[in-house]
Design brief:
Length: about 375
Protein backbone atom coordinates (compact mmCIF):
# COMPACT_ATOMS: atom_id res chain seq x y z
CA UNK A 1 0.00 0.00 0.00
CA UNK A 2 1.23 3.45 -0.92
CA UNK A 3 1.60 5.79 2.12
CA UNK A 4 0.34 9.39 2.21
CA UNK A 5 2.76 12.10 3.39
CA UNK A 6 1.26 15.24 4.90
CA UNK A 7 2.47 18.50 3.34
CA UNK A 8 2.75 19.94 6.90
CA UNK A 9 5.51 17.56 7.79
CA UNK A 10 9.14 18.10 7.02
CA UNK A 11 10.74 21.31 5.79
CA UNK A 12 8.47 21.94 2.85
CA UNK A 13 9.08 25.65 1.83
CA UNK A 14 5.47 26.06 0.79
CA UNK A 15 4.31 24.92 4.20
CA UNK A 16 6.57 27.38 6.02
CA UNK A 17 5.44 30.22 3.78
CA UNK A 18 1.77 29.51 4.45
CA UNK A 19 2.37 29.39 8.21
CA UNK A 20 4.18 32.76 8.20
CA UNK A 21 1.41 34.36 6.15
CA UNK A 22 -1.26 32.99 8.50
CA UNK A 23 0.56 34.28 11.58
CA UNK A 24 1.02 37.76 10.10
CA UNK A 25 -2.62 37.82 9.08
CA UNK A 26 -3.78 36.92 12.58
CA UNK A 27 -1.45 39.46 14.19
CA UNK A 28 -2.59 42.25 11.90
CA UNK A 29 -6.28 41.64 12.54
CA UNK A 30 -5.74 41.18 16.27
CA UNK A 31 -3.99 44.54 16.57
CA UNK A 32 -6.37 46.23 14.11
CA UNK A 33 -9.76 44.63 14.73
CA UNK A 34 -11.60 47.24 12.70
CA UNK A 35 -9.15 47.12 9.88
CA UNK A 36 -8.12 50.75 10.59
CA UNK A 37 -5.27 52.34 8.74
CA UNK A 38 -2.79 55.03 9.69
CA UNK A 39 -3.46 58.36 8.04
CA UNK A 40 -0.37 60.56 7.51
CA UNK A 41 -2.62 63.51 6.62
CA UNK A 42 -4.53 63.50 9.96
CA UNK A 43 -5.14 67.04 11.28
CA UNK A 44 -6.62 68.53 14.53
CA UNK A 45 -10.38 68.96 14.40
CA UNK A 46 -11.59 72.51 13.86
CA UNK A 47 -12.36 74.41 17.07
CA UNK A 48 -15.99 75.37 17.60
CA UNK A 49 -16.39 78.93 18.83
CA UNK A 50 -17.82 78.98 22.34
CA UNK A 51 -19.51 82.32 22.31
CA UNK A 52 -19.94 84.56 25.34
CA UNK A 53 -19.88 83.20 28.90
CA UNK A 54 -23.16 82.87 30.74
CA UNK A 55 -24.00 85.69 33.15
CA UNK A 56 -23.77 83.27 36.08
CA UNK A 57 -20.25 82.25 35.04
CA UNK A 58 -19.19 85.85 34.61
CA UNK A 59 -20.40 86.61 38.12
CA UNK A 60 -18.47 83.69 39.61
CA UNK A 61 -15.28 84.72 37.82
CA UNK A 62 -15.71 88.35 38.88
CA UNK A 63 -16.22 87.40 42.55
CA UNK A 64 -13.09 85.26 42.60
CA UNK A 65 -10.94 87.90 40.90
CA UNK A 66 -12.22 90.59 43.25
CA UNK A 67 -11.98 88.71 46.55
CA UNK A 68 -9.12 86.19 46.17
CA UNK A 69 -6.46 88.87 46.89
CA UNK A 70 -8.13 89.31 50.31
CA UNK A 71 -7.81 85.61 51.22
CA UNK A 72 -4.69 84.34 52.99
CA UNK A 73 -3.10 80.98 53.71
CA UNK A 74 -2.26 80.37 57.37
CA UNK A 75 0.40 77.92 58.52
CA UNK A 76 0.95 77.11 62.18
CA UNK A 77 4.21 75.78 63.55
CA UNK A 78 4.58 73.92 66.81
CA UNK A 79 7.67 73.96 69.02
CA UNK A 80 8.81 70.60 70.38
CA UNK A 81 11.75 69.60 72.54
CA UNK A 82 13.83 66.50 71.81
CA UNK A 83 13.67 64.34 74.94
CA UNK A 84 17.25 63.16 74.43
CA UNK A 85 19.12 66.30 73.36
CA UNK A 86 16.64 68.83 74.86
CA UNK A 87 16.97 70.83 71.63
CA UNK A 88 13.87 72.76 70.59
CA UNK A 89 12.78 72.35 66.99
CA UNK A 90 9.81 73.37 64.86
CA UNK A 91 7.33 71.08 63.15
CA UNK A 92 4.28 71.95 61.01
CA UNK A 93 1.12 71.84 63.10
CA UNK A 94 -1.63 72.69 60.66
CA UNK A 95 -2.97 74.95 57.97
CA UNK A 96 -6.03 77.08 57.51
CA UNK A 97 -7.43 80.15 55.84
CA UNK A 98 -8.15 83.73 56.77
CA UNK A 99 -8.82 87.11 55.20
CA UNK A 100 -7.44 90.64 55.34
CA UNK A 101 -9.53 92.82 57.64
CA UNK A 102 -7.90 96.22 57.15
CA UNK A 103 -4.95 98.13 55.70
CA UNK A 104 -3.18 97.98 59.07
CA UNK A 105 -2.37 94.32 58.41
CA UNK A 106 -4.95 92.65 60.63
CA UNK A 107 -6.10 89.18 59.55
CA UNK A 108 -9.23 87.37 60.76
CA UNK A 109 -9.41 83.59 61.09
CA UNK A 110 -10.88 80.88 63.33
CA UNK A 111 -9.54 80.49 66.84
CA UNK A 112 -9.16 76.74 66.37
CA UNK A 113 -6.86 77.33 63.37
CA UNK A 114 -4.19 79.05 65.49
CA UNK A 115 -4.86 77.60 68.96
CA UNK A 116 -1.69 76.42 70.74
CA UNK A 117 0.53 77.42 67.80
CA UNK A 118 4.15 78.21 68.61
CA UNK A 119 4.53 80.35 65.51
CA UNK A 120 2.12 81.54 62.83
CA UNK A 121 2.86 82.44 59.22
CA UNK A 122 0.48 84.17 56.80
CA UNK A 123 0.91 83.83 53.04
CA UNK A 124 -0.77 86.44 50.87
CA UNK A 125 -2.23 85.93 47.42
CA UNK A 126 1.02 87.25 45.91
CA UNK A 127 2.79 84.30 47.66
CA UNK A 128 4.73 86.55 50.04
CA UNK A 129 4.91 85.07 53.55
CA UNK A 130 4.80 87.09 56.76
CA UNK A 131 5.29 86.22 60.40
CA UNK A 132 2.07 86.86 62.32
CA UNK A 133 1.55 87.93 65.91
CA UNK A 134 -1.65 87.36 67.86
CA UNK A 135 -3.82 90.43 68.49
CA UNK A 136 -6.46 88.56 70.46
CA UNK A 137 -9.06 85.82 70.42
CA UNK A 138 -12.70 85.08 71.18
CA UNK A 139 -12.74 81.28 71.67
CA UNK A 140 -16.47 81.24 72.49
CA UNK A 141 -17.09 82.57 68.96
CA UNK A 142 -14.18 80.65 67.37
CA UNK A 143 -12.62 83.92 66.17
CA UNK A 144 -9.06 85.24 66.25
CA UNK A 145 -7.27 88.31 64.90
CA UNK A 146 -3.63 88.26 63.73
CA UNK A 147 -1.25 91.06 62.83
CA UNK A 148 1.24 91.01 59.95
CA UNK A 149 3.73 93.65 58.83
CA UNK A 150 3.00 93.58 55.09
CA UNK A 151 3.00 96.96 53.27
CA UNK A 152 -0.43 98.55 52.96
CA UNK A 153 -0.27 98.45 49.14
CA UNK A 154 -0.16 94.63 49.25
CA UNK A 155 -3.21 94.37 51.49
CA UNK A 156 -6.73 94.08 50.08
CA UNK A 157 -9.33 94.28 52.89
CA UNK A 158 -12.44 92.21 52.33
CA UNK A 159 -15.83 93.85 51.77
CA UNK A 160 -18.21 93.22 54.68
CA UNK A 161 -21.80 92.32 53.89
CA UNK A 162 -24.92 91.32 55.83
CA UNK A 163 -26.16 88.06 57.26
CA UNK A 164 -29.44 89.07 58.90
CA UNK A 165 -31.30 89.18 55.57
CA UNK A 166 -29.94 86.01 53.94
CA UNK A 167 -32.37 83.68 52.19
CA UNK A 168 -32.18 79.91 51.85
CA UNK A 169 -31.28 79.14 48.25
CA UNK A 170 -29.23 82.22 47.46
CA UNK A 171 -25.83 81.59 45.89
CA UNK A 172 -22.66 81.62 47.98
CA UNK A 173 -18.93 81.20 47.37
CA UNK A 174 -16.16 79.91 49.60
CA UNK A 175 -12.50 80.74 48.98
CA UNK A 176 -9.79 79.05 50.99
CA UNK A 177 -6.95 76.58 51.11
CA UNK A 178 -8.37 73.04 51.42
CA UNK A 179 -5.64 70.45 51.99
CA UNK A 180 -3.06 73.21 51.51
CA UNK A 181 -4.22 74.02 47.96
CA UNK A 182 -4.28 77.78 48.05
CA UNK A 183 -6.78 80.09 46.36
CA UNK A 184 -9.46 77.44 45.85
CA UNK A 185 -13.02 78.48 44.95
CA UNK A 186 -16.11 76.39 45.66
CA UNK A 187 -19.71 77.37 45.05
CA UNK A 188 -23.06 76.46 46.53
CA UNK A 189 -26.13 77.91 48.17
CA UNK A 190 -27.34 78.86 51.60
CA UNK A 191 -28.77 75.51 52.71
CA UNK A 192 -30.30 76.61 56.00
CA UNK A 193 -30.24 79.47 58.52
CA UNK A 194 -30.42 79.70 62.28
CA UNK A 195 -28.30 76.63 62.95
CA UNK A 196 -26.40 76.16 66.22
CA UNK A 197 -22.92 74.70 66.66
CA UNK A 198 -20.55 74.29 69.61
CA UNK A 199 -17.33 76.28 69.86
CA UNK A 200 -14.08 74.80 71.15
CA UNK A 201 -15.13 76.04 74.62
CA UNK A 202 -18.44 74.17 74.27
CA UNK A 203 -20.36 77.45 74.12
CA UNK A 204 -23.23 77.56 71.64
CA UNK A 205 -22.77 79.77 68.57
CA UNK A 206 -26.21 80.85 67.39
CA UNK A 207 -27.67 81.76 63.98
CA UNK A 208 -24.97 79.88 62.07
CA UNK A 209 -25.21 79.67 58.27
CA UNK A 210 -25.38 76.20 56.72
CA UNK A 211 -24.07 75.82 53.16
CA UNK A 212 -23.42 73.05 50.64
CA UNK A 213 -20.40 74.87 49.17
CA UNK A 214 -17.57 72.35 49.56
CA UNK A 215 -15.62 73.07 52.74
CA UNK A 216 -12.70 70.78 53.61
CA UNK A 217 -9.82 70.78 56.11
CA UNK A 218 -7.85 73.95 55.40
CA UNK A 219 -10.95 75.98 54.54
CA UNK A 220 -11.50 76.90 58.19
CA UNK A 221 -11.17 80.62 58.76
CA UNK A 222 -11.84 81.51 55.13
CA UNK A 223 -14.67 83.74 53.91
CA UNK A 224 -18.15 82.75 52.83
CA UNK A 225 -19.31 85.29 50.25
CA UNK A 226 -22.54 86.36 48.59
CA UNK A 227 -22.88 86.90 44.84
CA UNK A 228 -21.75 90.52 45.29
CA UNK A 229 -18.42 89.31 46.70
CA UNK A 230 -19.22 90.53 50.23
CA UNK A 231 -18.33 88.65 53.40
CA UNK A 232 -21.41 87.01 54.91
CA UNK A 233 -19.71 84.46 57.18
CA UNK A 234 -16.48 82.78 58.20
CA UNK A 235 -16.26 79.08 57.36
CA UNK A 236 -15.84 77.23 60.62
CA UNK A 237 -16.65 73.55 60.49
CA UNK A 238 -18.19 70.70 58.52
CA UNK A 239 -20.46 67.84 59.46
CA UNK A 240 -18.64 64.77 58.22
CA UNK A 241 -17.83 61.27 59.45
CA UNK A 242 -14.91 61.00 57.02
CA UNK A 243 -13.34 64.40 57.73
CA UNK A 244 -13.99 65.66 54.20
CA UNK A 245 -16.81 67.67 52.72
CA UNK A 246 -20.22 66.04 52.83
CA UNK A 247 -22.08 69.09 51.59
CA UNK A 248 -22.93 70.27 55.11
CA UNK A 249 -20.71 73.17 56.15
CA UNK A 250 -21.23 75.88 58.74
CA UNK A 251 -20.16 79.52 58.87
CA UNK A 252 -20.25 82.03 61.74
CA UNK A 253 -22.49 84.87 60.49
CA UNK A 254 -20.82 88.15 59.56
CA UNK A 255 -22.94 90.24 61.93
CA UNK A 256 -21.29 88.33 64.78
CA UNK A 257 -17.83 88.65 63.19
CA UNK A 258 -18.30 92.40 62.67
CA UNK A 259 -19.39 92.79 66.30
CA UNK A 260 -16.60 90.78 67.90
CA UNK A 261 -13.56 91.60 65.74
CA UNK A 262 -13.50 95.34 66.64
CA UNK A 263 -13.64 94.35 70.33
CA UNK A 264 -10.65 92.04 69.86
CA UNK A 265 -8.72 94.80 68.08
CA UNK A 266 -9.51 97.31 70.85
CA UNK A 267 -9.17 95.08 73.91
CA UNK A 268 -7.42 91.89 72.80
CA UNK A 269 -10.52 89.91 73.66
CA UNK A 270 -14.28 89.89 73.35
CA UNK A 271 -15.73 92.30 75.90
CA UNK A 272 -18.89 90.80 77.31
CA UNK A 273 -21.68 92.66 79.01
CA UNK A 274 -22.37 91.19 82.44
CA UNK A 275 -24.26 91.61 85.68
CA UNK A 276 -21.48 91.29 88.25
CA UNK A 277 -22.82 88.14 89.89
CA UNK A 278 -21.83 84.53 90.44
CA UNK A 279 -24.39 81.75 90.43
CA UNK A 280 -24.96 78.58 92.39
CA UNK A 281 -24.69 75.08 90.86
CA UNK A 282 -27.82 73.77 89.17
CA UNK A 283 -28.31 70.97 91.67
CA UNK A 284 -28.99 73.44 94.52
CA UNK A 285 -32.29 74.58 93.00
CA UNK A 286 -33.02 71.11 91.64
CA UNK A 287 -32.92 69.66 95.15
CA UNK A 288 -35.30 72.41 96.25
CA UNK A 289 -37.58 71.66 93.29
CA UNK A 290 -37.17 75.20 91.98
CA UNK A 291 -36.40 76.52 88.51
CA UNK A 292 -34.26 79.45 87.50
CA UNK A 293 -30.75 80.73 88.28
CA UNK A 294 -29.81 81.23 91.92
CA UNK A 295 -27.55 84.20 92.64
CA UNK A 296 -24.74 83.05 94.90
CA UNK A 297 -22.68 86.24 95.25
CA UNK A 298 -23.03 89.86 94.19
CA UNK A 299 -19.70 91.57 93.43
CA UNK A 300 -18.96 94.62 95.55
CA UNK A 301 -19.37 97.84 93.60
CA UNK A 302 -20.99 96.04 90.65
CA UNK A 303 -24.08 97.19 88.80
CA UNK A 304 -25.91 94.24 90.38
CA UNK A 305 -25.13 95.56 93.86
CA UNK A 306 -26.23 99.05 92.83
CA UNK A 307 -29.51 97.58 91.55
CA UNK A 308 -30.07 95.83 94.87
CA UNK A 309 -29.70 92.22 93.74
CA UNK A 310 -29.35 89.83 96.66
CA UNK A 311 -26.95 86.93 96.97
CA UNK A 312 -27.27 83.74 98.99
CA UNK A 313 -26.26 83.96 102.66
CA UNK A 314 -24.96 81.19 104.83
CA UNK A 315 -26.38 81.21 108.35
CA UNK A 316 -26.21 78.88 111.29
CA UNK A 317 -28.01 75.72 110.26
CA UNK A 318 -28.51 76.45 106.58
CA UNK A 319 -28.80 78.99 103.77
CA UNK A 320 -30.91 82.04 103.09
CA UNK A 321 -31.52 81.89 99.36
CA UNK A 322 -30.72 84.93 97.30
CA UNK A 323 -32.61 86.17 94.26
CA UNK A 324 -33.53 83.57 91.64
CA UNK A 325 -33.38 84.90 88.08
CA UNK A 326 -36.36 83.76 86.02
CA UNK A 327 -35.98 85.90 82.90
CA UNK A 328 -34.40 88.89 81.21
CA UNK A 329 -36.42 91.46 79.24
CA UNK A 330 -39.34 89.05 79.13
CA UNK A 331 -37.31 86.05 77.90
CA UNK A 332 -37.45 83.02 80.18
CA UNK A 333 -34.05 81.58 81.19
CA UNK A 334 -33.50 78.25 82.91
CA UNK A 335 -29.71 78.03 83.22
CA UNK A 336 -26.61 80.17 83.12
CA UNK A 337 -25.85 79.45 79.45
CA UNK A 338 -29.26 80.78 78.45
CA UNK A 339 -28.81 83.83 80.68
CA UNK A 340 -25.36 84.54 79.22
CA UNK A 341 -26.63 84.15 75.66
CA UNK A 342 -29.42 86.63 76.33
CA UNK A 343 -27.14 89.14 78.07
CA UNK A 344 -24.66 89.03 75.17
CA UNK A 345 -27.36 90.26 72.80
CA UNK A 346 -26.87 93.66 74.42
CA UNK A 347 -24.00 96.11 74.82
CA UNK A 348 -22.11 97.31 77.87
CA UNK A 349 -24.12 100.19 79.33
CA UNK A 350 -27.52 98.88 78.20
CA UNK A 351 -30.25 98.59 80.82
CA UNK A 352 -32.04 95.24 81.10
CA UNK A 353 -34.93 94.15 83.29
CA UNK A 354 -34.45 90.99 85.33
CA UNK A 355 -37.47 89.02 86.51
CA UNK A 356 -36.59 87.67 89.95
CA UNK A 357 -38.10 85.33 92.51
CA UNK A 358 -37.47 86.98 95.88
CA UNK A 359 -39.05 85.76 99.11
CA UNK A 360 -41.58 83.77 97.06
CA UNK A 361 -42.66 86.88 95.18
CA UNK A 362 -41.78 87.84 91.60
CA UNK A 363 -40.20 91.25 91.22
CA UNK A 364 -38.68 93.10 88.26
CA UNK A 365 -35.37 94.94 88.67
CA UNK A 366 -33.55 97.15 86.16
CA UNK A 367 -29.79 96.52 85.92
CA UNK A 368 -27.12 98.33 83.90
CA UNK A 369 -24.86 95.87 82.07
CA UNK A 370 -21.16 96.26 82.82
CA UNK A 371 -18.01 95.06 81.07
CA UNK A 372 -16.79 91.62 82.06
Amino acid sequence: MRSFRSPLRGNNPLTLFLIVVAVLYLLFHTLNPEGSRLDPDAQPKPVTARGDLADDEKNTIAVFREVSPSVVYITTIELQRNIFTLNVYEIPKGTGSGFIWDKQGRVVTNFHVIADAGRIEVTLADHSTWKASLVGTAPDRDLAVLQIGAPANTLHPIMVGESNNLLVGQKVFAIGNPFGLDQTLTTGVVSALGREIKSVTNRTIHNVIQTDAAINPGNSGGPLLDSAGRLIGINTMIFSKSGTSSGVGFAVPVHEVNRVVPQIIRHGKMVRPGLGISIAPKNVLRELNLEGILILNVAAGSSAEKAGLQGTKQVWGGLILGDIILGINGVRVKDYNQLRDEVEKYQVGDVVTLSLLRDNHQVDVAVVLEAM
